[in-house]
Design brief:
By secondary structure, this protein is an alpha+beta fold. The chain is built from 11 helices and 5 strands; from the N terminus they run H-H-H-E-E-H-H-H-E-E-E-H-H-H-H-H. It has helices spanning 2-14, 30-39, 41-54, 80-88, 99-102, 106-113, 160-181, 197-207, 212-219, 223-237, 242-251; strands at 63-67, 73-78, 117-119, 132-141, 144-154. Strands 2-1-5-4-3 form a 5-stranded antiparallel β-sheet, with helices on both faces. Strand 4 (132-141) and strand 5 (144-154) form a beta hairpin. Helix 9 crosses helix 10. The longest helix has 22 residues, at 160-181.
Length: 258
């Protein structure tokens, strides 16, 4: 990862991008952005609904950003402290997080590497992002990337509760989008949504006969977190009970039982 970041820095230098820029270099004209917004209206609506459900349980600073497949910011929801940072640096819908616009950042790296990326302040290229802790990941429907999710904090490391939400939120958004659009998609996409590594660990322990208390102790998490993961697993797998989840996971060879 470090090598990839340094290569990105080199590209920024070769392209003449100054570290001292005070705002993103690329922003869509209003008419173009409105057209893009309408194109992604359903995804944006799902993003807003998902954030609305969880943001009141977060005690620290946070910023949730939805970005399209080309790096354009579509929608953002953040705490009041971070809103001031956004205003100062002109971070708002329509601006681009592509490397040529903002230098090396979590979203541009996620776009390049096609994998989840966590970046610390010092890893960003441009100075106006040097206080940011950012996690960015692609939103996949099968082999198609429908956008990116970025979760960020400013001036403080992400708290455990935000990290847990960061792990689950992309799957929640993709699940809801897939559910609402599956009638317009090929049936081969039905298997598109995958479980997180933590969800698979919980499923494996469930299959081995462990209860929620035992699972929480084994994974050093709270029982509440176990319940939260299970609820999301049920949605992703399209089941209502633990037994159904285990059977379906076994059928798909997501877990195994000796």
């Amino acid at each position: 990862m470090e090598e990839k970041i340094y290569l990105s820095w080199d590209r920024c230098i070769k392209n003449g991008l100054s570290k001292s820029i005070s705002k993103p270099k690329i922003k869509l004209p209003s008419i173009e952005f409105q057209s893009l917004y309408q194109k992604h209206k359903q995804l944006i609506s799902i993003f807003k609904d998902c954030i609305r459900k969880i943001k009141y349980s977060i005690t620290g600073q946070y910023a949730f950003m939805l970005i399209d497949a080309q790096g354009i910011l579509l929608e953002v929801d953040s705490s009041k402290q971070i809103q001031q940072q956004f205003k100062k640096y002109h971070i708002k819908p329509g601006m681009s997080f592509a490397e040529e616009s903002c230098g090396t950042n979590a979203i541009s790296m996620a776009m390049e590497l096609q994998t989840a990326v966590y970046m610390k302040p010092e890893q960003h290229y441009c100075n106006f992002l040097k206080q940011w802790y950012c996690y960015a990941t692609a939103l996949h429907i099968g082999s198609e990337i429908i956008g990116y999710l970025d979760v960020s904090t400013v001036g403080q490391v992400m708290q455990k509760e935000l990290m847990a939400i960061t792990e689950l939120l992309p799957y929640e958004i993709v699940y809801e989008f897939h559910r609402k659009t599956k009638g317009h998609r090929d049936s081969s996409d039905k298997e598109a949504v995958k479980l997180t590594s933590r969800q698979l660990e919980i499923l494996q322990l469930m299959a081995e006969g462990h209860n929620e208390k035992e699972i929480a102790q084994a994974l050093y998490i709270s029982i509440r977190t176990v319940k939260f993961h299970k609820a999301n697993m049920y949605k992703i797998l399209g089941v209502e009970r633990s037994e159904e989840a285990i059977v379906k996971a076994l059928q798909k060879k997501l877990i195994s039982v000796e």
